[in-house]
Fold this protein.
Amino acid sequence: MIPEPAPTVRELLAFYLEAGVDCALAEEPTDRLAELDTPPPAPRAPPPVEAPRPVAAPAVIRGETAPAPDIAIASAREAARTAPTLEALRELMQSFDGCALKHTATRLVFADGNPQARIMFVGEAPGRDEDIEGLPFVGRSGKLLDLMIGAIGLNRTTVYIANVIPWRPPGNRTPTPQETQICLPFIQRQIELVNPDVLVTLGNPATQTLLSTREGIMRTRGRWFDYETGGRTIRALPTFHPAYLLRSPSYKRLAWQDLRAIAKILAG
Ligand code: URA
């Protein structure tokens, strides 16, 4: 059998890209297979038996230290709480170092649209196109979102758009619950500062996170919720994420019903 020629670097990169690997996480490659080949360390001899010593409570329980995510969540809460304006919030988030996603993303994706809008849309997290442009919903699902809001006479000058997570997760993976909890105080403050009349949560993750529900989008979509900012109750409506509608166009009919319900509230 004639051996196949080794792939060129260009072919290899094209293969990676197609498989969803579109960013480097470290300067040097890590050979995970070599790690598997390394024999496990030999079992250590049991330590000599000593007289029992009093066992100290772990530092976390003694309250001396907190695990890093707890510290990050607490400092995000504190930072977000003190932001008096959207611009101040954006600057705070630019300098916030508590979320690891910031270090793999190209840039912060803060928001797009009109901060005075009566309606705010919130998605899950930026994807590749958003990470490149620094604006939410500019890729394929963003184009569909533009059509959806256009269908009720709105556009990016009359709506405000943001995400629960403002940094792109590498390879578009699902954000971890910890990452979501760290970013949550920022989007909560952003909603409070925009103070829209209607909040639209796009898809399951944004709906469950912001509206504190465990129900799935099939049950929550089209149902009005109360979103409490602390000072005001905002009417919130979950609907399908445009990326989901691209995959399952038959649900566009239900999304259209949701959009009409939104238009009715805005007109009322
Ligand atoms: N999906 C999202 O949830 N947000 C974006 O900004 C883009 C795609």
In short: The chain has one domain: 69-267. Residues 123-127, 130, 136-137, 139, 141-142, 163, 243 surround uracil (CB under 6 Å). Residues 69-267 form a domain with the Uracil-DNA Glycosylase, subunit E fold (CATH 3.40.470.10). The CA atoms of residues 87 and 93 lie 10 Å apart.
